[in-house]
Design brief:
Layout lengths: L3 E5 L8 H7 L4 H9 L3 E4 L2 E5 L16 E5 L3 E6 L15 H11 L7 E2 L8 E7 L2 H12 L4 E9 L5 E4 L2 E3 L7 E3 L7 E10 L2 E8 L6 H8 L18 E9 L6 E5 L7
Parallel strand pairs: 7-14
Antiparallel strand pairs: 1-3, 2-3, 4-5, 5-7, 6-7, 8-13, 8-14, 9-12, 10-11, 12-13, 14-15
Length: 267
């Protein structure tokens, strides 16, 4: 695998490298360092980033099997199982990020992977990772601008018809690792669609572009239809929540990518 990151560009008399680096959403500090250290150059119709030392992988590799749904030169999408962390919490390195580090290093790719977003410990499904700092900031910008579309299957108690909830979410100051709808919280919007109803349970698809911690779980609990198996906001042991769709612009060519998997929730 190549540790030189390549981007195709149209080179004309108006081409300016700094402007180009701004256009792919690199922070000015990173752009300046790359230019000053001679780690970025223009050749014909390409911009080349030599990141072997600048963006070296320092994440401890851990040999844990991972289910890769999609991979290209700049990103990896992994299907996460239940009961595994995205990245280290300081207590364990048995995480998806450590496992991805092992996978990439084993293939000779020595740049640093990063998680672009997170899903909860007990949530299953798709997680997006960058394979270098260039693709990370391209995707991070999309996250900030609410351009990355995420869809989830979920099962809630009772009958819940399709709808939209746009309520701000913030920390519950009286309970650790718990969030609530609160006026002082951050904006959060969840669009939900009823797919099926039986045995006093509703199968839904929820679509979000905001990514607040526990967003869908908090919103469903606020509607008095907590997700089945939610240990924090409802009852049960097995959280019925699956990240099944990601839609975003590819860092390589800015074309829209859609990654999806089948529904694996028991309903």
């Amino acid at each position: 695998m190549n540790n030189i990151i390549e981007r195709k560009v149209n080179i004309d008399k108006n081409f300016d490298l700094k402007n180009y680096l701004d256009s792919i959403h690199l922070p000015k500090k990173v752009s300046s360092e790359l230019i000053n250290k001679g780690l970025v150059k223009v050749e014909k119709n390409k911009v080349l980033f030599d990141l072997a030392e600048y963006d070296k992988n320092d994440i401890e590799p851990v040999d844990i099997p991972i289910d890769i749904v999609y991979e290209d030169s700049d990103i990896v999408v992994i299907k996460k199982g239940r009961g595994i962390l995205i990245h280290s919490d300081g207590n364990t390195n048995d995480t998806l990020l450590n496992a991805l580090s092992f996978y990439l290093l084993n293939k000779g790719y020595k740049l640093k992977p990063r998680s672009v977003h997170r899903i909860d410990y007990d949530t299953i499904g798709l997680v997006l990772f960058s394979k270098n700092i260039i693709s990370y900031y391209h995707l991070f910008y999309q996250m900030e601008q609410e351009m990355i579309k995420k869809k989830y299957y979920l099962v809630v108690g009772g009958l819940l018809n399709s709808g939209v909830i746009e309520k701000p979410i913030g920390k519950n100051r009286h309970k650790n690792n718990c969030y609530i709808v609160t006026k002082s919280g951050k904006r959060a919007k969840t669009v939900y669609e009823k797919l099926d109803y039986k045995d006093n349970k509703t199968l839904l698809v929820a679509t979000i572009t905001t990514g607040r911690t526990h967003q869908i779980r908090v919103h469903m609990a606020y509607l008095n239809h907590p997700i089945i198996g939610d240990k924090i906001y409802g009852v049960g042991e097995k959280l019925m929540l699956e990240s099944f769709y990601l839609g975003f612009l590819s860092p390589i060519n800015n074309k829209y990518l859609e990654i999806k998997i089948d529904n694996e929730l028991e309903f």
